[in-house]
Amino acid sequence: MSSRPPLSRRRALRILAAGVSIPLGVLALRRVRGQPQPVQWHGEALGAVAHMTLWHPDPGVAKRAMLRMQAEIARLEAVFSLHRPESELSRLNRDGRIGTPSRDLFDVFDQSRRIAEASGGAFDPTIQPLWRLYAETARSGAAPDPARLAAALRAVDHTRVSASRRAIRFDRPGMSASLNGIAQGYVTDRITDLLGNEGFENAVIELGETRALGHAPDGTAFTIGLVDPLQPHRTSRSVALADASLSVSGGYGLRFGDASRHHIFDPKTGISANRLAQVAVIAPRATLADGLSTAIYVAGESAAPALLAGHASTRAILTRADGTVLQL
Fold first, then answer.
1. What does the pLDDT look like over 261-298, one tens digit per residue?
2. CATH of 88-170, one of 2.60.40.10, 3.30.1370.110, 1.10.3980.10, 1.10.357.140
3. More confident site: 134 or 20
4. Integer Cα distance of 252 and 152 in angstroms
5. How far apart are CA 265 and CA 258, in angstroms?
6. Its family (predicted)?
7. What pTM does this model have?
């Protein structure tokens, strides 16, 4: 038996990123004569591979903006990161309560509550006990012990989170949260909004989720490739994106043992959701797209129309387990 330590969430996400070079796909850049050349940054945000591409007539302006955006990403890491012991989220998970939360943390919990309620709990921010259990057993390749799984499930319940401007707390012992199913979208929105406020009209921000600010400099939509869920090392189709966001959920990125055990858990059963192979949601904002793609992936095809109906200008591309595709 291996003596290596259990798989950490951060290392697991790096493995995920290495397996599919960008969590969603690839941005197809077109070099157009007479248009500004793109200024790009590549790094990491909340454990995911991150990219930003800006266009501006003055490359120096774009480069300085990149530095400001990197500083903002670092600030938000200190709110949402699970691998930083002194982040707000880590302190909440450790103590079960945090007083006077930042606006960022409160807003994400508030939006999480809305999506959790709309999806009947298919999206649940308190999923972290399941992640921890599966990560601890990942080295053996075996499914978690039923007793330990039942214990973890008792600590998963989005209705037992109390969130206000004064405090956020868990109402049951042993609870903890992971906001990775929505915080990456929030960070993506925050950066895109800042760039828009600074006068940028053409940008693509990929911080775990993707958001296009405006169009490509030639006036066309950006082209984003989607990972093929049945062959995750290649792309299978593309999405045209302009002034919109894209989030993709699929269980192919990180597996615990066999293909049926992966990182997107059904909060009701504690078992990985496998109703669909992939869900891609296109929405005006990345936070919404992020939460909805997870919720639909867990809840399944039958729940998708109602979840999408509550949000204008939102659509989804569902890939079934047999590879057939449904567009809603």
1. 667 889 999 888 889 989 999 999 999 999 999 999 99
2. 1.10.3980.10
3. 134
4. 23
5. 15
6. Belongs to the ApbE family.
7. 0.88
